[in-house]
Amino acid sequence: MSVEAGRVAAALVRRVRLPNDRRTPAAARALVRSVLEQAGLDTLVNEALLLTTELSTNAVVHAGTEVDIEVDADPAGLTVTVTDFAPGPVEQLAVGPRNEQSDIGEVAERGRGLLLVDHFASRWGTVHEGVGKGVWFRLESKETAGADAAAVTDGEAAPTVGELTTLLQIGPERHTDDTLADFATELLSRLARLTGATGGVVRLDRGDGGGRQLLARHGRAPRDDAETIRVPLSVQRPYSGELELDASPAGYAQPLATIVAERFSLHLENDRLRRTDLRRQTWLTFLAEASELLAQSLDVNLTMALIPQLVVPRLGQWCAVHTTDAWGRLQLAAATHADEAAVPMLHATLAETGPDSVLARLEEASRLGQQVMFGTPPEGFAVPLVARGQRLGTLAVGRHQRHRHDGEEVAVLEDVARRAALAIDNARIHDERRQVARTLQASLLPPALPHVPGVGFAAEYVPTGSEVGGDFYDVVPAGDDSWLVVVGDVSGKGVQAATVTGLVRDVIRILVDDGKPMTEILCRVNRTLVQRGGGRYCTLAMASVTRAGQDLRVCLHLAGHDRSVLVRADGKTSFVGEGGTALGLLETITSPDVTVMLQPGDSLIFYTDGVTERRRGRELFGTARLSDAATPLAGYPADVMAARLRSTTINFSVEEPRDDIAILVLRNDA
Question: Domain PPM-type phosphatase: where (predicted)?
Answer without folding.
Answer: 452-668
